[in-house]
Amino acid sequence: MGRILSLFSNEAQLLKALRKEDPKAQRQLYDKYSARMLALCFRYICDDMAAEDVMVEGFIRVFSKIGQFNEEGSFEGWIRRIMVNEALGYLRKQKRILEDTLSDEANNIPDYAHADQNLETQELLQLIESLPTGYRTVFNLYAIEGYPHIEIAQMLGITESTSKSQLHRARAMLQKMVADWENDFKKKVEYEKASG
């Protein structure tokens, strides 16, 4: 089956149809943003099925709250904020928002000055996925979504200093994982040179 042609050629037409609860407009919006929003939800939840459930709930919220979008700022940004809030709500319900599986040893991880250029984006995302939930959540909100610590603290119901601490620990843990990855990569390259 071929791609459905866009029925609403600009954002203003699409918004007008969405406000009238037009199912074709809803489908077009879903088709346009679902892949990006699923990736966003997965960054927080790291479970395919749960991330998809959260994304669907997010779109339901987008459709029901479309009247609240005041067209100041980006429509996609507004949708992203709803998805982030849905993902955080899911984590809160799971009581996983700030599990702190690392002790203070994270503060003692040395600062590795660089990340190897051989580390691909997908590999870096996998490293981020492997962070404990609290670290990953704050890292995503701060480093990827661009929220300031004060807003993160409000969103998560934590103090600003806890947000900063979680980010610091996430970065330290990522630096160590990147350094370990680099060492493994260098060993692999040396092995291939020696055996080739």
Walk me through what this model shows:
The protein is mainly α. 68% of the residues lie in helices and 0% in strands. It is globular. The model is unreliable at 1-5 and 99-118 (pLDDT under 50).
Question: Short summary of the structure?
Answer:
The protein has 196 residues and is mostly helical.
The SSE order reads HHHHHHHH
Largest sheet: none
Structural class: mainly alpha
Termini Cα gap: 48 Å
Number of helices: 8
The radius of gyration is 20 Å
* Residues in helix, %: 55-70%
Report the strand count: 0
Shape: globular
pLDDT < 50 stretches: 1-5, 99-118
Average pLDDT taken over every residue: 82
Strand-residue proportion? under 5%
Labels describing this entry:
single chain, 196 residues, mainly alpha, disordered N terminus
Task: List strands and helices in order, with pairings.
Blueprint: H1 11-19, H2 23-45, H3 48-65, H4 75-93, H5 121-129, H6 133-144, H7 149-156, H8 160-195
